[in-house]
Amino acid sequence: MKMAEGTTILRRNRPGTKAKDFCRWPDEPLEKMESTLVIPQYIQQLIRKDPSNIDSILKIPENYEQGVWKYEHLRVSIKATSVDKLGSVCRRVYRIFSHAYFHHRQIFDEFENETHLCKRFTQFVTIYNLMSKDNLIVPILEEDSTPGESEA
Fold this sequence. Notes:
This protein is mainly alpha-helical. It has a domain at 34-76 and 83-143. Helix content is 45%, strand content 0%. It has helices at 38-49, 54-58, 66-72, 86-103, 105-115, 117-127, 142-145. Helix 4 crosses helix 5 (105-115). Keywords: Metal-binding, Zinc.
């Protein structure tokens, strides 16, 4: 990305960058991103902009295939022979969320209020049928669909 004066904005954090200055470059539309890592950069940009806007983060942009979009969220390349094992991997990751929720609730709530990671992961695995809904025991999606109900 170039600025009006002709200087180039490097979209990366240099060694020694303070935490408060991480990722402080301006947002860039997906169509203008030029990189081999366009999709992960775009997803990260959406998360930094508003981590609670999960629908926007998980929405497939025009001209992108569902399979490409789905697997880019994982930030790793996956062999075709390994795709069948994704459900098992997702269940294992989800166990971390459920453990944190049921055994470290205060920490879970603080982290979830800031990052919305469990909710994003839960919606992701639900949209792409990577896990059975029977295995989704953290009531993260129910909170939105049943306003006004208490936990008691």
